[in-house]
Amino acid sequence: MRGPLLSWGRYPNIPQLAHSVQWPEELAPARDKIFSETGEGALAFGMGRSYGDSCLAQSDQVIAMSGMGRMLAADWTRGVVKAQAGMTLDDLLRLALPAGWFLPVTPGTRFVTLGGAVANDVHGKNHHVRGTFGCHVRRFELVRSDEGLVECSPQQRPELFAATIGGLGMTGIVQSVEVQLQRVSSSLIDQRCIRFGNLDEFFAISAEHDSQHEYAVSWIDCLAVGDKLGRGHYIAADHASEGGLELAANAKLSVPFDPPVSLVNSLTLKPFNSLYYHRQRVKEVCSRTSYAPFFYPLDSVQHWNRIYGRKGFQQYQCVVPHQDGRNLIRAIIDQIAHSGTGSFLAVLKQFGDVESPGLLSFPMPGITLALDFPHSDKNSSLFQRLDALVHEAGGRLYPAKDAHMSAAHFQQAYPAWQEVEARRDPQLLSRFWKRVTQ
Amino acid sequence: MTQKILIIGASSAIAEATARLYASLGCELFLVARNSEKLEVIAGDLRFRGAVAVNTFSMDANELDKLQEMTTAAWEQLGTVDVALLAYGTLPQQERCESSYEYAVAEFRTNAESVLACLTVLSNRFEQQGSGGLAVIGSVAGDRGRASNYLYGAAKASVDTFVSGLRARLHSVGVNVLIVKPGFVDTPMTAGLDLPGPLVVTADRVAEDILRAISRRKNVLYTPWFWRYIMLIIKHIPLVIFRKMKF
Fold first, then answer.
1. Cβ of A20 under 8 Å from any chain B Cβ?
2. Chain A within 8 Å of B173 (Cβ-Cβ)?
3. d(Cα A232, Cα A222) in Å, to the nearest integer?
4. ipTM of this predicted complex?
5. Residue A428 DSSP code
6. A232 has which bridge partners?
């Protein structure tokens, strides 16, 4: 749908003028036009699923990539595909799954582009086994204002390869991506859902089960306090060994307009979280489900971001190292629970130690917590307290979700930022990058 | 049975979106467009999307002397053509049309004359074949000439009138003729225009409507549907008022 583009959280609410491209040769002219007319940096824009300002251009004019979604090559015997960077993971799955291949790593929405997956080095529920998306990228083509078309791989231009993975679109416009898929024998998922009553139980279950499963994630009730703090559901899962390669249907539900106030508020939050926790009566349930509800529960409702109303929302996602991580996560949840705000559910997961090739990759060995907050001026004092805890522990925040982190925290948490800045395409700049580096 | 689809102007956004839907149904496609490199990329993509075979033919819409060669190649390749879609066009700048009749005539040639020529050649093939359907992309702009784009409107209106007669001619032999009238579609052709956001739809949405209309053998498709009513109102604005309107 045309119209000014916004980021997913719609905060900051800065509409972006889109320059649509259909073909690779249109990329450089679109970038040149934006840069010469505004004197500010342009940015490639995919599906706009980044929450904060990392998908907003400093010039407020972006190169819309969704018309560049063609498959260029596919080797279904080895599971290697090459596609234009505007192809969505949804589209890629549609082509790959019937051939018996699945995404090696998938974030919680399939409506992101390959270019966006590279730029944010996205991760998923199998981080403890397979690392980030960037670990499975074999090569990509980058369009730069100073060098033209550059092909990058771990062997060819390795410094640019590393700077681009997780590089937030600063090192050039990704034109095409070649990625290694993972073989599956079914589109179904065998899942095991275990209810836990508090954070200590979570760590015990996670330690016992994570290593035995491809996927592991937990949903927690971030409003429970005291000895129930951190209660929730742990879900471990694997691709089923049989059951056909059926594609999931796309969303039929939609949030058609912005409610005047956020539907996520103090009246709705507590009952929902409590109900969700209690929906599973027994401690452990095993079931088989399609991949879509397991990986992409929110994709079943189009425009779900509208439930937060016109003011939008902010996501807070941090990672803290394992050492003392348990106490830190407890302290963070405690702060959130007492603030009375937050989202229906928070996501908790332990990252593994598979290293990403990217310089600015967010995941590190440790524990990650993610949850949404309806945008409000009151968030900033809570976020300040949380940021202090995270940074003191040597943790960091996820740029793809961020609209608030300070330059000092960013630069401390991502010491390689200067290497990326040195390789930044001078005609590209996001509002996020400007905010945290300049 | 595999459906055989001929698409002329295959690199337009609406045509490519439509071709993807046909590919996912396992059809065989024959694509015609000016730029052979782009055609090859599109053809490759459609093969991955499930098309059983994709062949291409490169020609400019105004190279009328290539029309016979193109249709012969298409029929030789496909055997029977179940659907032929004409989807090329440009969006002339109205102001330039007013200052330069050469430009205006050249644009009219691309958007009207070449379409009539192509339909003439195709219709004879379809008449011989005695089956299948022809679909042509027109525009809501062809329903009434407006100050802001009357050259484009005139070209589309001439296609509309031509198609109306052609439909009556081919009806008796069992060939259906559909005219598609899209409203505002988010495509490169409309990039940079200041269009009312809520009325703008994606090429994918239009493609779904086109597929459905072709399979149901419709005669006229407004897409999205509400344009039928918008244009009904616009067509009935009294002339004394309409002549003062600059939209």
1. yes
2. no
3. 9
4. 0.90
5. B
6. A196, A220
